[in-house]
Amino acid sequence: QVQLVQSGGGLVQPTGSLRLSCAASGFAVVDRGISWFRQAPGKERDWVSCITYNEPLTFEPLTLYEDSVKGRFTISMDKSRNTVYLQMNDLKPEDTAVYYCASDLVFGASCSEMSRRHASELELWGQGTLVNVSS
Questions:
Q1: What are the pLDDT tens digits along the chain (135 aa)?
Q2: Which terminus has fewer CB within 10 Å in the chain: N or C?
Q3: Interacting residues of 98 by C-beta distance below 8 A, sequence separation 6+
Q4: What is the DSSP string of the chain?
């Protein structure tokens, strides 16, 4: 059973913090990286961040972030729990969206590649969780 199971969404006030979890089963996150996407109401599903443990060519860990979340969001990996986290600090109303973790048989090997993909190109998805940043 290859799947991603998410948790951690909810309602939070602006400037608040929230941590999302993405637990993988059927594969190891050290072998296949994870991306976070988000989809605001009426908007496209956009890439937010990614993490790999062994990036192709460099064979070193790699994390990448969309510009609007740099310095506020931190992606991390707990190898023992086979789980990827997205720590979200200083949340803004424009962060409100359904957040999805995702991977792919091919593109999941590379954080750099996943950051360039449209959501429709990735095959494995978590169920999504709503993050509502509102006062």
A1: 999 999 999 999 999 999 999 999 999 999 999 999 999 999 999 999 999 999 999 999 999 999 999 999 999 999 999 999 999 999 999 999 999 999 998 898 999 999 999 999 999 999 999 999 999
A2: N
A3: 38, 39, 128, 129, 130, 131
A4: --EEEEE--EEE-TT--EEEEEEEESS-TTTS-EEEEEE-TTS-EEEEEEEESS-TTT-S-EEEE-GGGTTTEEEEEEGGGTEEEEEE-S--GGG-EEEEEEE-TTGGG-HHHHTT--GGG--EE---EEEEE--
Q: How far is it, in rounded angstroms, from Cα 51 to Cα 111?
A: 6
Contact call for residues 106 and 37 (beta carbons, < 8 A) = no
Phi/psi for 129 (5° steps) reads -145, 140
What is the b/e burial string over 10-41, where b = at least 16 CB atoms within 10 angstroms of the residue's CB?
A: eebeeeeebebbbbbeebebeebbbbbbbeee
Q: What is the pLDDT of residue 105?
A: 87
Residues 6+ apart with CB under 8 A from 15: 90, 91
